[in-house]
Design brief:
Elements (H helix, E strand, L loop, with lengths): L1 H20 L14 E8 L22 E7 L6 E5 L1 H11 L9
Antiparallel strand pairs: 1-2, 2-3
Bound molecules: zinc ion (ZN).
Zinc ion binds next to loops.
Length: 104
Amino acid sequence: MRGKDEALLRYEDTVEAILDEQEFVPECPQCREYMVETGRQVVQAASFAPKRPERLRGGAIIEAPFSMTLYMCPSCFTMEYALSEEDRSRIGDRLSRDPEADRK
Ligand SMILES: [Zn+2]
């Protein structure tokens, strides 16, 4: 029993130290714990079919390759993806462009 409590405390300490190193600390959508960053995944063009909304005149919201950061909840182990910081600015540029600009 005591060993188990100690292990749990160490687990929490380690998680806390890892969270301190992170720039972004999202909350778990299930249980509201802070999520730890576990890694990055690059999505290649061959494995991604972009949606092309009419509003963008055949353009995609995002083109692959792009990368995502994978977060894990240390409590319920829910995993969640977020678009990487670099790719966020690409989306910002794309969606803030004037839709009439490349007409004519
Ligand atoms: Zn959770």
